[in-house]
Design goal:
alpha/beta; globular; 9 helices; five-stranded parallel sheet
Length: 200
């Protein structure tokens, strides 16, 4: 159990199952938007999207555009927490160029499979995908100039640990660029403990 009273294992199993479906059946209707139309609506550059493999774009399930907050610079090192099918990771790689590096971290094997295939399809050598939880990032201390995330942190029950991990992997003076779902008022405990609502 997490500090919120949620069964973390049950929650992660349900989230994995949901995003496994997004990876396997990208044209299926979900209770959230996905794919190219969503990315375009969120302000991603259409010309850049056209250069990305279909697998990365069709299973995109973000909630915003972390690149609208600040441009990434050539040579920067980036960690993408909850990288999914890899759209944001590939966009970051295109921004930082061959002198930079990007590590995508996700807990869903099917999403990682799509992301790795997409990176291989476009021949990116400055990208790596690692399977792990956001609460235990497989990245060395102080490695990243930037940590990005798009709609993943709201799915983590132990946010204090997630943010401690993000701080650990950031170099001094590094920055975070998140797009996520937040609430401005307390959520009733019954809703917090409802795993279906977390995954929704």
């Amino acid at each position: 159990m997490s500090s919120t009273g949620v069964d973390e294992h049950a929650l992660r199993a349900q989230v994995r199952a949901k995003y496994r479906d997004v990876a396997r059946f990208p044209t299926r209707e979900f209770h959230f938007h996905t794919g190219r139309a969503l990315a375009e609506r969120l302000g991603y550059d259409e010309a850049l999207l056209a250069t990305l493999p279909a697998g990365a774009v069709e299973s995109f399930a973000g909630v915003g555009n972390p690149f609208s907050l600040h441009p990434l610079r050539a040579g920067e090192r980036v960690v993408d927490v909850g990288s999914g099918a890899g759209l944001d990771t590939l966009v970051a790689a295109s921004h930082v160029g061959p002198s930079g590096a990007v590590i995508g971290v996700d807990m869903t094997p099917e999403m990682l499979e799509k992301a790795r295939a997409a990176a291989a399809e476009v021949g990116l050598r400055n990208v790596e995908f690692r399977e792990a939880l956001a609460e235990a990032l497989p990245v060395e201390d102080g490695w990243a100039d930037v940590v990005i995330s798009n709609g993943a942190l709201n799915l983590c029950p132990d946010k204090s640990t997630v943010f401690a991990e993000i701080r650990r992997v950031l170099r001094p003076g590094g920055r975070v660029q998140f797009a996520d779902i937040v609430t401005g008022r307390p959520i009733p405990q019954a809703a917090v403990q409802n795993i279906d609502l977390w995954a929704a």
